[in-house]
Amino acid sequence: MNSASNINRRHFLQTATGAAAALLLGQARGQNTDTNPVPTKNAAGWLSRNNPADANRTGKQRLPVAALQQWEAMKFGMFIHFGMSTFAGAELPSGSDPSTLYAPDKLDVDQWVSIARDAGMKYAVLTTKHVAGHSLWPTKLNDYHVGTSGKKTDVVAAFLKACERRGVKPGFYYCAWDNHNRFGSLSPNVAPLPFGKNPSPTNRSSAYATQAYLDFQWAQITELMDVYGPITEWWLDIPHLLPRDYRERLYAHITQRQPEAVVMFNHGIGDGSELIVDRAWPTDLIAIERFLPNSATGHVKWRKIDGKDYYVPGEVCDPIGTDWFYTEHDQPRSDAELLGMYLTSTSRGANLLLDVGPDKHGLIPERYQSALVRLRKNLNKLGL
Fold first, then answer.
1. Which residues, in sequence order, are bridge partners of residue 378?
2. I want to staple 169 with a disulfide (CB 3.0 to 4.6 A). Which of 123, 204, 229, 330 is the partner?
């Protein structure tokens, strides 16, 4: 994920959507209000409801509209950021930390997925490899993974078993920005940075991936498919480091092996109004990172790309607090803000992938659990 936060967006959530959520909750409790609640759009989406002819469109996207709408119908998922960054205390580590630094002493992956299920989340996406380059499965492609760490549990395998046991659809996150496995690439940052600090703009604009790294990424993603089988969603981060022709080949490689999965190349921070082809195409979805869908239009699902019409669902992704990975100081957002995030995302035609980071013990902390319990109760009061 990108590390930058957006002050205006957070302020908006705390005021506009937070107020709307408080209003809706008040009405659900029978309190008198002077303002009508924000209408909730149907699963077909904001734009489709205003344009009945859209129901008959097919588009040039790989998956049928009906299949993509099945993904949209899940509405709510859990993003799980966990790994070396949790233990290094930096979202964007240098990649030089020893594998043994990763050492959760109470690791309970089933707890994570149980909490997601109980919160009403229908799917979950796990960070299999983030910027630190440390893999949460015992990859055979290097020695920087859980198998050489302070806790040798295959987290990817445990995650899939937990998802199957709890009825939650699994997804894998994989990051192209890799500070350990560089193979001569220039990463957007080359030194550890504290949470909330951006890499050098110069490095970010001149970053690139070598063919050797591209081969490594291809091999790791292939290994994940070979060892762990089909999943529901592939969430591929920092795709602007990857040449478009490579993205197209990788997309085809994944979808040929797992044709029912949705594949997303992360578009990055923004409200999803614009889909920049050079940054994140091809993709089945568009990420709406650290923002909400455009307030005037909702999420616009029909896009014209290279002269052809495509149906592209949206997925809002944002942490339950401020940081993607667990930090001791990070507190969950208010109940009104979390409710507002859900209501605004789904009413504007996008799913919400809410990030919840397990701590250094390998557990989702109580304060996040409690916030999700309260969110579920508030959604139940609204009949959602």
1. none
2. 123
Evaluated on CA atoms 9, 15, 20, 22, the torsion sign reads: positive
C-beta of residue 233 within 8 angstroms of C-beta of residue 171 = yes
Q: Which residue has the higher pLDDT, 45 or 219?
A: 219
Are 183 and 213 within 8 A, CB to CB?
yes
Q: If you ran DSSP here, which 8-state letter would residue 92 be given? A: B
d(CA 113, CA 116): 5
Judge contact between 313 and 350, C-beta under 8 A.
Answer: yes
- Distance between CA atoms of 234 and 258, rounded to whole angstroms? 10
Q: What is the DSSP string of 342-358?
A: HHHHHHTTEEEEEE---
| CA–CA distance, 293 with 274 (Å, rounded to integer) | 11
Please name the residue that has the structure tokens 């008959």: 56
CA atoms within 13 A on the CB side of 5: 16
The confidence score (pLDDT) of residue 54 equals 73
Residue 34, pLDDT > 50, answer: no
CA distance 325 to 134: 14
- Look at residue 19 and tell me whether its pLDDT is greater than 50: no
Torsion sign over Cα 222, 227, 233, 236 = negative
Query: Residue 44: CA atoms inside 13 Å, Cβ hemisphere, count?
Result: 11
Please determine, for residue 191, whether its predicted confidence score (pLDDT) is greater than 70. no
CA distances from 346 to 73, 75, 300 (A): 10, 7, 13
- Beta-strand runs (E) in the chain: 76-80, 123-129, 169-175, 233-237, 262-265, 286-289, 302-305, 308-311, 314-319, 350-355
7-31+44-381: CATH class: alpha beta
How far apart are the C-alpha atoms of 232 and 63, rounded to whole Å? Answer: 13
Q: What is the DSSP letter of 308?
A: E
Angle (CA) 351-50-267 rounded to 5° is: 35
Collapsed DSSP state (helix, strand, coil) of residue 123: strand
Structure tokens at 223: 């290994």
The region, left, alpha or beta by phi > 0 then psi within -120 to 50, assigned to residue 127 is: beta
Q: Any idea what DSSP says for residue 269?
A: B
Amino acid identity for residue 91 in this structure: E
Q: Of 54, 40, 42, which is closest to residue 302 (Cα–Cα)?
A: 54
Collapsing DSSP states into helix, strand and coil, what is residue 277?
helix
Residue 372: both structure tokens together: 């999700």
